[in-house]
Design brief:
Length: about 240
């Protein structure tokens, strides 16, 4: 339970860190005015509402859920495992993989902020750095170049004096990199099931059973094949290892 609380608080602070203007205007001094307090409350509620989306954008969750969805389609099952099971499994795997990043963000940014050892701006930067490092390790240079070129075409500055890429460029590049990797792994996962479908369809057609859908016959064989090779163990293990 502690890791969920830490992850939720980290997501909230991270969301604020993605918008320096928001952090300065909403979390800055408001002079005790009622209007400022209302804005603070509204900003807090907004952050809490989109915190789960932030965790999805800056973690490996998209890769996991895409592979599991392709696996289910490849086997030929429409609703088994249910969506809630696949999402929950992807979420727990994400927490498992991202636990070092979340711990670093908590210890370096949020915990000192709660202890009033650092100010908000410093906490935002420290909280963001572990996620930035994770995304930079897993993003493709080609995707970074794409969003960098798009931003420069619009006259936006995407790198600071130290050459660090702006987070508004890094996050979308990281997301499309994760989606691409999810489809790559999903393609390899679905290939054996495609072979089974082709073999069963050939046998059914050769036997002259034209009215019998091959998918009905191949479904139990695909499930048996996946169970016999301990597919969940192999798939989950390789998915975790695929994340740098």
């Amino acid at each position: 339970m502690r890791i969920f609380i830490r992850s939720f608080l980290t997501a909230c602070v991270l969301m604020i860190a993605l918008s320096p203007a928001f952090a300065q205007n909403v979390l800055g001094p408001v002079g005790g005015q009622t209007s400022g307090q209302i804005i603070q409350l509204f900003g807090l509620l907004s952050v809490l509402a989109i915190a789960p989306g932030i965790l999805v954008m800056v973690t490996c969750f998209p890769r996991f859920i895409i592979v599991f969805s392709i696996l289910r389609s490849g086997i030929g099952l429409q609703s088994t495992p249910a969506n809630i099971i696949l999402i929950s499994l992807s979420l727990f795997m994400t927490f498992y993989v991202m636990s070092p990043v979340l711990d670093n963000a908590w210890k370096s940014g949020i915990q000192p902020l709660m202890a009033e050892q650092i100010d908000e701006e410093t906490a935002f930067q420290r909280t963001l750095e572990p996620f930035r490092g994770f995304m930079e390790k897993n993003v493709r240079d080609k995707d970074i170049d794409l969003f960098t070129d798009l931003a420069e075409e619009r006259g936006q500055v995407v790198r600071n004096d130290a050459g660090v890429v702006d987070i508004r460029v890094l996050i979308p590049a990281f997301m499309i990199s994760e989606i691409r990797r999810g489809f790559e792994i999903g393609f390899l996962v679905v290939l054996p099931f495609l072979v089974i479908d082709l073999i069963v369809a050939t046998i059914v057609m050769a036997m002259g059973m034209m009215m019998l859908p091959p998918s009905v016959v191949s479904l139990p064989f695909k499930i048996l094949f996946f169970v016999m090779i301990d597919g969940w163990n192999i798939l989950v293990g390789n998915l975790v290892r695929s994340v740098i």
